[in-house]
Design goal:
Blueprint lengths: L6 H6 L44 H11 L5
Length: 72
């Protein structure tokens, strides 16, 4: 089992849990390519949860959405 930590968990843990990029790669070489499942589960705290001294969950989400151009 692999768990990818996201940006909010990185912020809330002051970097203890680094944010990771999710990717699925088929193994190469002598490893058999057997069927497997990838089941993403996204969790988001309530908007008013304080992630750090700098952000609530909503403030952090809004900033990230602006950075990637999904919110103006």
């Amino acid at each position: 089992m692999v768990i990818n930590a996201g940006d909010m968990l990185q912020e809330a843990s002051r970097g203890y849990f680094p944010s990771t990029t999710h990717r699925v790669i088929n193994p190469g070489g002598d490893i058999n390519n057997e069927s497997r499942y990838s089941m993403p589960l996204f969790l988001h705290p309530r908007d008013d949860v304080m992630l750090s001294e700098n952000y609530t969950a909503r403030e952090y989400l809004d900033e990230r959405l602006e950075e990637i151009g999904l919110k103006s």
